[in-house]
Amino acid sequence: MHASPTLIGFGFKHCLKYDIDMIRTLSGTVISLEPGGVVIDVSGWGLFVNLATIDSIIMGDKITIYTHLAIKKNGPELYGFTSQSDRAFFELALTVPGFGTKTALSLLKRAELPQIEKAISARDIKYLTHVVGLGKKAAEKIVIELADKVATHENIHGDTDTEVFDMLVALGYNEREARQALGAIPKEVSGRDARLKSALSASTH
Question: What range defines the domain where residue 189 resides?
């Protein structure tokens, strides 16, 4: 069972005074991989940090992550990111009405940040619903709120991945399986056929 920040030290919840900017980075050793995150040993304290993915993290790794401290009814929770741009997008997503930390983090689980921002700025509802996994209303809401606020990018794999998603579904994948297969494609793989082949080879479907 991981250590919650609310259990650490003497009255951790009270000493923070609900200042979400108090903890912005953490450096330490990964001592446990758990569903949804990792436990990091920071000066003897085991801190559980929610992460979008733990695929590239190995037990014993010494890591530095950028963090967001969320204050909830049951106490504070830490969310970690490998880049400041991922954290900035996560915090921007939290400004969308109805978007909580779970939804904001799920966006980064399903696609690379440049692809998500490209889809939002291009108002690509199909990509946001099919590939990213948002409901139609949530996709429309994030476009309305953030289309003029996110960074713009060249269209890296957005249109291609929408096609690959549709092809995977046509092959019998359900939407969840198709999104997981897309997420397993290395970002350096380009072209519809190459990305489809990579998705199929990485999938356990």
Answer: 158-202
**Residue 151 within any structural domain of the chain:** no
Question: Same domain, yes or no, for 77 and 15?
Answer: yes
Kindly write down the DSSP assignment for every residue of 92-123, as one continuous string: HHTTSTT--HHHHHHHHHHS-HHHHHHHHHTT
pTM score of the predicted model: 0.72
Beta bridge partners of 8: none
Contact 37, 49 (CB under 8 A): yes
Q: How far does Cα 8 stand from its chain's mean position?
A: 26
- How many domains does one find in the chain? 3
Q: How far is CA 13 from CA 18, 65, 72, in A?
A: 8, 21, 11
Are 31 and 78 members of one domain? Answer: yes
What string of DSSP letters covers 41-104?
EETTEEEEEEES--TT--TT-EEEEEEEEEEETTEEEEEEESSHHHHHHHHHHTTSTT--HHHH
Q: Which H helix or E strand runs over 157? A: none
Whichever domain contains 29, its CATH number is 2.40.50.140
Q: Residue 74: which residues within 8 A CB-CB, separation 6 or more?
A: 6
Read off the pLDDT of residues 86-137 as tens digits, 9 standing for 90 and up.
999 999 999 999 999 999 999 999 888 888 998 999 899 999 998 899 999 9
